[in-house]
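protien #1 (seq + structre)
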Amino acid sequence: MYKSISTAHNYDAQMGKEIFKCFEKNMDIFTDFTVNVGDFQFSCHKFVLSSCSGFFEALLRTDMREKYESSCTIEGISPEIFGLILDVIYKGTDVLDEENMVEMWHASNQLQIEFLVSSCQKFVNENITLQNYWSIYEAAKLLNSFGVLTKVKKLIVNNYPNVVGSDDFMEIPFEEFKDLLKHFRIVGDFVVNSVLKWAYSDDSYLTPEPEKCIGLLRVDIGLHNALCKKMEVETEEHEKMSLRRLYLGQLFSAISLKDISTACLSNLLNNTFVIDNKDAITLVNKQAASRLELTKPAMFKNYRTASATKTPPTPARKVSANNENLLNRVSLYFDIPLKFQYILILLFAAFLFTLLLFSGC
């Protein structure tokens, strides 16, 4: 009699647990390989390591020194994380949590443990928050995880005000920030202001009051030297941040300024930082000119509509030396056909001639 699928699945799971119990019971017996991680040594089995890890399989299959010495040293992984990886391999323990998921992801990728890489990636993708989004973004980019990258970018765009207010916002490198800006379909005033915030951070803390330094010098020379050293470090950081100002034009080119308000556009035109950046002010001026061009036809159309329903007052006319310019002005103001304009001008000229003739008499 055949077993059902669910029964067979439960049977396989139970068998797996029993096998892991055997490993756990005898994991310290017949060990034939030592892994050095930091100051710790882990006794393992070549067969188990090579079966689960592509890294160890390649290491033990080739004629390398580690194969004959039955030991190797692992760099870039902490002893705590490697111990958790051994728990997964030998015991099947579920060790992933929000604290270790990024480190476990890196370590399993380094050791080429494919099933653990997939588990870590799935766990990370389900636990992205505003508190850990940037560390996950950096890990996903390093490990070429397109799915996780897409979800992190979506989280940033959907929660952008909270992201701008977080400490990690100012740590975003230029290339990543520029790439994120391209994901905004509609760019509002807040996005533009966030670009200015990123490019021009507050540096008032770099100029302590001289009186405070003098007071510290009188009280404690050591404390004064510590303060000066701190100021040197902060100055170096400030110089790095100042380089961001050069990127303002490129950041503006990554977003569309057509959706910002007129008030925001006016502020950009008068912003000293924007004016000092040639590329940035060029883009802002171009947007301002484009917006003016869009308003001209509407103004002219409204004026023509108003002139058709309401007769404008007769203006005081002056004889112009340029008849073409006079005709253009009359045509624009009165909307009179061209042939009637010539008749009016001839009648007006005849009136002036008659007036001069009678005044001469």
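ok now protien #2
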Amino acid sequence: MGPKGAVKIGDSLEYTKTIRNLDLSCNELEDVGLQSLVTGLGYNKSIKNLNLSNNKFTHLSCWQLAEIFKENSNILDVDISWNNIMNKEQGIKFFLNSLCKLNETLENINFAWSGLNGENVPAFFKSFLARFKFIKHLDLSNNRLQGKMAIDHFSRGVNSSTSLETLDLSYNPFQLEHVMNFISRISKARSLKKLIFSNFWLPRKMYKAATDIHERGGPSLVVEGLLGVKEEEVSNEVAQTLLLKRAHYLGLKPKKKKRRKEFAHFLLKLKEDDKLKQMKKKAFLKLFNEQKLLIDDKMENEFVKRFKVLDRKNAVDLPLILELYMKLFPNTALPKKKGPATATPGDIVNQLLEKLIDNAVGKKSADSRIGKRSKIRQTNSKLKTKSMKK
């Protein structure tokens, strides 16, 4: 759709009275496109669920989002995940403060994959949770929130909230001791019912402590699994899911974008080349090593074990790996191929101007060269005339 399409959508939204769920995700709207939607979304009276995820928004969009929710008193759920709104933290601070002052209806907010990080951001959310009396579900998963200080701010915010029911902090780089500290500090939270750390494996003793807190009226804890569990206690389906989630997380874990490597890209490339098929164990391990995937040590052996073909000896089911991976992460796609750059009208104008300038400069230099030559000839002729007179 892009920014141009957003203009047409924005013009019609103000008068639409039947749309309850509006999904504008993955449309590359950018900050400019969201600006075109502000009036339409702000005054719309029917939309309850709004999905704006993966639209290349930056911190500048936070001001536009604040304007939308200042005017709109009907939207209950907003998804702004997969946007780079944290390239400057002033944006997220302004947005959260604006909600506290001007909105009384928003219940669910999804900030997953938004690049949230830094020492100040947890403090912003502490204040937000204490002041905003309507939030029920907050998703902060797959960001870069970390450290003891962050846990301190979040626990204070959760304990102060009278409305928050679910908090998802999965796949943030917290340490295990921080998670347990968090659980113990929010044991008497007034409204929280579920705390999600789905990338963590807890020892049985720690999980029992969390269960005891839940039985005494505290929130329930959702984790990936328990350590110390015997292999036969885990079904193959569960193990497959855990492996794929772990591979996905590790591939996107590096802070620098250039170092990230989506696990399934090599499988998608094989599928594109019509080479995705069951593969012998030896060939599979060789392929894994060639791809230089960001995975745990000896993790490839677990893939061999969990995705083996039942009726074929020492074979790995690559199509099944990709199928299950795409069910878990349906937005996974190969990077777009960089083709020859297409010149925009502005580029063409600039090129023409450059040619005109070059031609003008070239003409001047040529004229100056001709002028110099004529002067030299005149001087030489004068010298010859003088010599002849003598």
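DSSP finds 14 helices and ten strands in the chain.
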